[in-house]
Structure formats: C-alpha cells, structure tokens
Amino acid sequence: MKIGTIDLGERPVFLAPMEDVTDIAFRLMCKRFGADMVYTEFVSSDALIRSVNKTQQKLTVADEERPVAIQIYGKDVASMAEAARICEAAGPDLLDINFGCPVKKVAGKGAGAGMLRNIPLMLEITREVVKAVSIPVTVKTRLGWDADNKIIVDLAEQLQDCGIAALSIHGRTRAQMYTGEADWTLIGEVKNNPRMHIPIIGNGDVTSAEICKQRFEQYGVDAVMIGRGSIGRPWIFREVKHYLSTGELLPDEAFSWYLDILKKQVLQSVERLDERRGILHIRRHLAATPLFKGIADFKQTRVAMLRAETVEELFNILDSIPGKFDI
Q1: What is the rounded distance in angstroms from the CA atom of residue 217 to the CA atom of residue 308?
Q2: pTM tops 0.85, yes or no
Q3: Contacts for 217 with CB less than 8 Å, ≥ 6 apart
Q4: Shortest CA distance to 40 belongs to which of 132, 50, 54?
Q5: What is the DSSP string of 191-247?
Q6: Do 320 and 301 contact (CB within 8 A), yes or no?
C-alpha cells in the first residue's frame, strides 16, 4: 500500500491521532512496537497561525518515527491553507485533515466532525489545503453526522476528487461520539466502490490482533488504524503485526515486562512536562491499560494509583501489584 510515494508495505497498521495521547514519546514507543505510521495530536489551524506556543510544540517530529503525519483542524479556508504550509515546513511525511473529531469544543464550533454538516465548506478546505502543500494530504472523517445522514460513500468520492491521497474512516457518526459499536459496513462499501482509487483506512474498535486481521479480511481496507486500543497498551502493535504475519497469537510476556513499559511511559511524560503535569498526563494510560484486568480486589490499588502525585509514590504502588493478569 502506498500513500503518495510513501510505501507502507502490506496490511499496514497505524496509530490514530488522539488529543492528549499521541505526543512524540508515545508515537516513538508505538513505532518501536511496530506501528507502520503514526499521527500527531490534532493541531488547531487558528492557534497555529497565531503562533500559540503549546500548539507549535505539537509540530515537533523525529526521524525515528517516520513516516509521520501532522493532523490539523479548523473551519476557515484561509487559516487551514496557511496552517498547512506551516505544518509542511515542520517536515512531516504527510498532512492529515481532521473532519472527524466529535467533541463539543471542536465539532460544536463547526470544525472536526462539525464539517459533516457543511460539505461544501469541507470540500473547499480540502481543495485549498491540497493546493497549499507539496506533500500528500489525507483526510480522516466519520460515517456522517447522525444515523439519518450516513453520507460517507458519496462523500468519499467527493474528497477523492479534491486531490487527497488517502481517506481514513471512523465507523461511527458524530452523534455516536465513542458509544455503541463501530460499523465497518460502510467503510467496506467505500473500499469496494469501483470509482475509489485512493487507499481506504479503517478505524474503530480495533482492540486485538484477531479483530485487526478480521477487519482486513472482511472489509478489504488498505490499512487499519488503532486508536483507543493502544492507550495503556502500546505493545498492541507488536501483537497485531505478529498475528498478521504468522497467524499465531504472540505469547504473553512476564507481567514485569508490561509494567516496565508503563513505567517508561511515566518517566518519559515526566521528563517532557514535569512531575506533576507528567503524572496527570499519563493517568489516562494507567486507567485504560488492560494489564491489571482480572487482578482480584484491585479497586483500592487502582484508586491509589490514579491519585499518586509523585513518581516514587506511583512506582511503589505499581511494584506492589501481584503479577497475575489477563490481557
């Protein structure tokens, strides 16, 4: 599979862009575990052209994580085109446009998935961003605004006509947010549309190696994107790539092996921010990890773990957890 001239191999698996999750440390970790492409947190075009420091920091990419995409969002044509040029100067391999974020502060203001209610503007932004840069431009979106407006099959053709190099589709509507099950049926319909010739990337509820393989085989997508299934579990890419290549599940490692990865994430987060903010940032991973699933009487330990305020306190709690788990 290729996006532009970027060769991603057969059945590639991507790390989805996620706000407050896919910082550079997490991207590099997922890359080391086998992610074929990684995406930055989404970048506000308005904040970027105003030179907001926190937003500019999101543009930092490392050679070790390539191929890497920077993702931008916004609702103004000129701002999005200018932001695209700024992003291109940061040196990503491709630029992704976010037309899928469902959260109120984004979609409610007409950006992200909010664009699904203004298709003419979505298409104009896409055309102008494609014109503004020389690197491949891709789009990530959803099935539609709600159950009565699942427009993705027709929309995919329109976006392709704007010149994008690939399309990622999350199998939910904006109204669903992250509830219910992702519906891949329409993703498969887009992929099997004979008028579509760009790669189609499927996203939504891929939480295991078996599910990933099934998505490739049943829906024929060119790539699979893993989002929430990687939070607190960056090793999922290692499991998936092994299963795709061998058809066999990767045997579990020792409990301490997984624990050391989470500890490394804590230390990287603290190094990047500071102790207080770093621990706050990493709590999402600690809360989401399946590593502690099935451990008896874990509730109090979990509460203490998520309340810890120093690295020493947190590591003491982690080291006290018995090495019995169900991943």
Answers
A1: 43
A2: yes
A3: none
A4: 54
A5: HT-TT--S-EEEES---SHHHHHHHHHHH--SEEEESGGGTT-TTHHHHHHHHHHHS
A6: yes
The residue from 87, 101, 162, 212 that is catalytic is 101
Q: Which H/E stretch holds residue 68? A: strand 68-73
Residue 168 amino acid letter: S
Q: Are 138 and 129 in contact (CB under 8 A)?
A: no
Q: Rounded to 10 degrees, what is the CA torsion of 104, 110, 15, 51?
A: -100
Whether cis (ω within 30° of 0) applies to the bond prior to 102 is no
**Cα-atom radius of gyration of the chain, to the nearest Å?**
20
| Cα separation, 313 vs 325, whole angstroms | 22
Read off the pLDDT of residues 172-218 as tens digits, 9 standing for 90 and up.
Answer: 999 999 999 999 999 999 999 999 999 999 999 999 999 999 999 99
Residue 101 designated active-site:
yes
